[in-house]
């Protein structure tokens, strides 16, 4: 990962900030799904729980790595306000600050893409085991 010592955020850093904002939402969604599965009588509920816990574990690992890397780059993300369509955060970095907004539609799309990646990772891990 390249690090710019001053100036504005790089595209890579913006992506990291976006992911740090989205990952807690993914964790919440997976937690809710796990609770639903836990209380269902589905024959495969144990398998679904294992898969969900795998995804949750990956989310936690990714949040930890992102926080460490952003801290190393002297970038801090602070939740600000929400309205019906946009969620705002403040980004403090290298003596600058920026108000960062993301629409709910963009968030839904990005969350869907990220969940697809986590599911593909799970599938690959299962294939390696078999």
Question: What do you see in this structure?
Answer:
β2 and β3 (96-103) form a beta hairpin. It is built from 3 helices and 3 strands. Mean pLDDT is 92; it is low at 1-5. The chain has one domain (11-121). α1 crosses α3 and α2 (45-72) crosses α3. 63% of the residues lie in helices and 18% in strands. The chain has helices at 11-38, 45-72, 104-129; strands spanning 75-82, 86-93, 96-103. The chain starts with 10 loop residues before the first helix and ends with a helix. The longest helix is centred in the N-terminal third of the chain and has 28 residues, at 11-38. By secondary structure, it is α+β, with helices and mostly antiparallel strands.
Q: Main β-sheet, in a few words?
A: 3 strands, antiparallel
* Share of helical residues: 55-70%
Total strand segments: 3
- Which structural class do you get from the secondary structure elements? alpha+beta
C-alpha Rg (nearest Å): 17 Å
Unreliable residue runs: 1-5
Instruction: Give the termini separation.
Output: 33 Å
Q: What distinguishing features does this structure have?
A:
disordered N terminus; elongated; 130 residues; 3 strands; alpha+beta; three-stranded antiparallel beta sheet
